[in-house]
Specification:
The model has no long low-confidence stretch (mean pLDDT 94). It contains four helices and no strands. The chain is flat. With 100 residues, it is mainly α. 18% of the residues are buried. α1 runs antiparallel to α2, α1 packs across α3 and α3 runs antiparallel to α4.
Length: 100
């Protein structure tokens, strides 16, 4: 369920970019559906996992996946600083998990 939540969050983020500042109205449906499914799935996950850990995994994986989508679709660069930032985020989540 957490993976589904993450995928729909990345989908909604991508639709938001594609909406061009909400000027392309059709993408708003994807935004609403994506976030609705994402938050619904996360709510179910929170019934069994701690909030801090769940949110850390959800946000960090979504950040990395969104960056990958940006690279693939819009050719956004992966600079050293961006890559290092994503690695540090992942390390932070691992440390949170180890302390859980």
């Amino acid at each position: 369920m957490l993976a589904t939540s993450i995928c729909f969050e990345v989908f909604a983020d991508t639709c938001m970019k594609l909406s061009d500042g909400f000027r392309k109205k059709g993408w708003i449906i994807g935004i609403v559906v994506g976030y609705a499914v994402s938050f619904s799935m996360m709510a179910l996950v929170l019934a069994t996992l701690p909030l801090g850990l769940t949110y850390a995994i959800w946000s960090s994986v979504a950040i990395v996946l969104t960056a990958i989508v940006g690279r693939i679709i819009w050719g956004e660069k992966f600079t050293f600083k961006k890559t290092l930032g994503m690695i540090l985020i992942i390390i932070g989540v691992v440390l949170l998990r180890m302390g859980a």
